[in-house]
Amino acid sequence: MTKKKIRILYASPECVPFANSGGLGEVAGSLPRALNRKRDIECRVIMPLYGAVSDEYRQKMRFLGSTKVGVTWRMQYMGLFELRKNGVTYYFVDNEYYFKRDGLYGYYDDGERFAFFSKAIFEAIAMMDGFVPDIIHANDWQTALVPVYQTSIYKREFMKTVFSIHNVEYQGFYGDTAIEDFIGIPDNYRHVLEFKKGINLMKGGIETANAVSTVSPTYSMELKDPFFAFGMQGIISRNSHKLSGILNGINTVVYNPEKDPLIPANYSAGDLSGKAECKKALQKDLSLPETDSMMITMISRLVPAKGVDLLVPILDNIIENNDIQFVLLGTGFPEYEDFFRGLEARHPDKVRCLIKFDSALSHRFYAASDAILVPSRSEPCGLTQMIGCRYACVPIVRRTGGLADSITDCTLGDGNGFVFDDYSSDGLYSAIMNAYGTYQRKDDWKKLSVHDLKCDFGWSGSANAYRELYRALTGGPGE
Ligand code: GLC
What we know:
Layout: E1 6-11, H1 23-36, E2 41-48, H2 55-58, E3 62-71, E4 74-85, E5 88-94, H3 96-99, H4 110-125, E6 135-139, H5 145-154, E7 160-165, E8 173-174, H6 178-183, H7 190-193, E9 194-195, E10 198-200, H8 201-208, E11 211-214, H9 217-222, H10 226-229, H11 233-238, E12 243-245, H12 273-285, E13 294-299, H13 308-311, H14 315-321, E14 324-329, H15 334-346, E15 351-354, H16 359-368, E16 371-374, H17 384-390, E17 394-398, H18 401-406, E18 418-420, H19 425-440, H20 442-453, H21 460-474
Parallel strand pairs: 1-2, 1-6, 2-5, 6-7, 7-11, 11-12, 13-14, 13-16, 14-15, 16-17, 17-18
Antiparallel strand pairs: 3-4, 4-5, 8-10, 9-10
Helix pairs in contact: 4-5, 5-8, 12-16
This protein binds alpha-D-glucopyranose.
Alpha-D-glucopyranose binds next to helix 1.
């Protein structure tokens, strides 16, 4: 008799390659694929059908049916589409009123949009041709109502929920009428969402999920600390018996300098010459002098958590006094964008700041650059330091969250990057100067680059950890 598989429905507000704004989309695009390589797991993904999902994918989708979903007093249309790709079945929840808009988030009614999505997931299961999940794995505040609805309304027997926190900073916090306005759960469950005179979706997810996970072991500990937890420390401590920290992986097929079609020359640990070509090509494209200067990059959302404040007082000085070129790719707070525009204006022959999010272009930045800055104040996991290693773009990071779990300092031995502890410009300055010093010693730098290229940041280990978590919740697949 063949063994049944554990069936996971991975609920995410974003997923590469369909619609993406950052790290969560990358994880949703790669973890389910890795899980499906395990013989005892079948993981499918469900996400909203945003206007941004391209025709290329829409044309391949199969329409599975439609129904109505109650969002308190409103009865809203829901259509369900299916697409199979790379061994994963993807479901798309269609409602043009909620999701046919520019971008993904940032609307006045985001709470209502994602309450609709979370509820639609339960209605969608009936249309999945017999796929009944053992576990719904929800991610971040946008799907935090999934475990809340399972606990308070649907109460599906044998179905468990996992809630993953990718970033505790964004919680989905609303006024105290949110339950009547758009959430709609029985009054005796109100307390699971109530928090500090309002309604907090992430709190509800943590309180009601059968298991809570976050994206690195260090962040799972930091979440109990007010410095990192944005008010959630008490709730997380109270639920720490069901909390685990599992380090994210990256998609090593998409991020592979040996085969990457998005970079001008390929390279490997055995032959790094293509990396030098990538640097020259980017310098040419950006009209920077084609020199062997150390090229440092930053590829990031430009928000306070990413540590831009630390750079502001020191970056002019570093660039002025050293043979360093600096290239940036990112968008965010206007004052940070202005700082980087100003930096470029002050150092036109050494700095290029591209104020945009462009994932194809990011491959060229990783491949061309010698080092990448990730000086985050807090970093649940961080992916750019891992992608950096993969492209021999050595990470310079602060020891926090997933950065602490993936990068070790090479100054005193066998590490893969440069690490500083204190959240201070001095600490960051020393780490950059350390990296610059090492860059001058060509043999040492080559050794470090080769070591980084060989680091394994694939999903295999972490997919096993999720598998263990799923097995613990379900008792493993039945006979
Ligand atoms: C969020 C976090 C980032 C993490 C990503 C994926 O974007 O800020 O640190 O890598 O989610 O889990």
